[in-house]
């Protein structure tokens, strides 16, 4: 099926703001209906525990259906891939379900399907996670499997060779996907080879080829420690009961040293440059525009949330309204601040019809400049309400609740973070938004990555005069013109 | 009937979705399901029209029309729809498929009047503000949607090639939902108005609301907002379509900007909720769902000649298709892979699957039902789906039961009956590599 739009990332949360209203007794179609006050959203209480080995538990009860979600959040991910070993964190995570000391890869897959559970392990820049979604009728069997996979991976070499080959083929297939090429090149151009964020989470051909199971074991032993991990538990359980089970399964997990982050310095931004990557025949040009942004710990988190909602974080955002609903250049335009332990990228992006590549760039630049002006009050209010009032919908299912708790665990946010979210957003002013727009988006120092049909778009891009044109390869590396 | 090894069957019974259903005098069906666990509501409208109702020369129209439903209506100026919903904390979207077009708003529970105002106004009062400029704009947006999913996406062209070859000319499913660029260019404002008058009427729609609402107030609001919309004309008769039978195995090739070829196998199968639909879903799981599945285990895990393999029973109102798609690893012979696929299908036709295999598939399906009813959004849509395609909203327990009822003999029977018939095979190859195509003669490199 096809949709009106690809679903924009879910709004963050907020609490109620009272408004007086009464519903009309007769309907006047010419007026927007007056709504009653937004419902009071009471977030479920979070029970916290800590095992003697330092493993933190965050437990939320939700008894609507006999389901439960468990997310083990280990506080290290791709950021600590050693130099030359890009992708080791991601491969380590992938390999957890490929064999333990007592179960083979096929046995894990068989039991997962037989129990009717979802059991996955993933990694991001800041975390490695093992996630379990299970009917409570299978809870004990599911938890035993979950703990085995998380705590006793065997990294069998034969399975590793298969997974490696699979990864290498994926890298070949990446050349088919202009959106993936754009993401990869953009990261490389912004951060350079000396910074982990300049690489791909999944690694590159050289690093994957050189990877051994010894590398995985080292990553696992170094980073998977209970004293840097949180187990999020949401669903049809009770704290006492589930704590007992977890203690039995995870209590023997040994503490370990936590090596503090040592972040590389990110390269200084250069003057705005257009990086053109040739994908002959591409029907659309894939744009990634921006600069290095902020870490999750930024004191401007809430102001940036509001800013980004206005600029490119909703259907009515400026980028989407301009590039899609006004000009018809794209199916969707968006922006985001990727906030990690260290400053991730700010990226404005869209897939623009090839014939309008130059016009699309003009509009992107217009919007990235215009966002520096005072945001009209009505637009500010709408964006704040979207963030605040959308909260209820993000805490409905056990999976949603568990996912919402991941950043709380990972970034050490207060347990009251969501209870305070609405007032924190409410406190954001026009002046705040203007300040952060000017501080964190730099029209004079943008990296503008365009993946498209060079033959048909290069002249037009030159004509925009956004900056010099630098021809790059799929990895963002310079090639001779 | 229930195997000993699937003893979990009783342990996790799917609860019934309680609802109330009634019809307004103008024909609008209403389904209401209360759920006060979270202060939100999902408002989900199904118009019983989809790409299957289009005509040759106007493919993609139902979906283009869906876009136009957001461009304002008589009492809702263009742009107000999204601004008001966002300001109320709501999310919304729509989707078009072969048999229906659906529109939803997921909102905090106080915003129900807003959603009903917006949905009723575009149901009843769309045309007065429709003009060429709006049609031209959304035509461009939809063309970009097609570019993103088809023209600029590896293997994206496969869908429309398969449909045109699998279904006879003129069959409602013989074109893709997104439509062709040429047909999108041809759509006019007059076409839009005629489509609206024909299909976008209360007597062709079902409004499904799930969540934290007061039923008395809600029914009154529905009556106030929707009650005055006039009933539309009788709907055009839909053609009877015969089940698709291929006269022979058909092998096609298409070039694309891809590094690796991909082969798509297609068999015609019976429609959604028919007797063999659930067994075919189970067959697909056993073929390719996870590591121990027949094709994955042999081709990806043991032989390691395949990068990816998928199998699915893609069900719809009139007819379904069973699809297997496979991507070889670089340098691996598709012909050799094809041989293995045919061997495994033959095994499934000649011997029953094991108890463990069918238990894995059935247990996974059982769990998936719990997931489907975990959100009001999911429930509102399910109620609409069951209402339209199964004849009643009260179907989730019967839906789950049809998977519980599948036996090893059923799986063998549907493998024989459907995968034993003629098939269509499309190989999408890198440019200049037509020699890689599957031909059914054991040929190709």
What does this 3D model show about the protein?
The complex is a heterodimer of chains A (481) and B (445). Chain A is 38% helix and 18% strand. Chain A has 481 residues and is an alpha+beta fold. In chain A, the strands form two sheets. Chain A has a six-stranded mixed sheet, with helices on both faces. The two termini of chain A are 42 Å apart. Residues 1-11 of chain B have low confidence and may be disordered. Chain B is globular. Chain B is built from 15 helices and eleven strands. The interface between A and B is large, with 89 and 93 residues.
Would you summarize the structure shown here?
The complex is a heterodimer of chains A (481) and B (445). Chain A has 481 residues and is α+β, with helices and mostly antiparallel strands.
Low-confidence stretches of chain A: 7-24
Total number of strands of chain B: 11
Strand order of the largest sheet of chain B: 1-2-6-3-5-4
Form type of chain B: globular
Question: Rounded to an integer, what's the Rg of chain B over CA atoms?
Answer: 23 Å
Helix content of chain A: 25-40%
**Number of extended strands of chain A:** 13
Strand portion of chain B = 15-25%
Largest sheet of chain A: 6 strands, mixed
Q: Look at the structure and give the mean pLDDT of chain B.
A: 95
- Count of discrete alpha- or pi-helical segments spanning 4 or more residues of chain B: 15
Order of helices and strands of chain B: EEEHHEEHHHHHEHEEHHEEHHHHHE
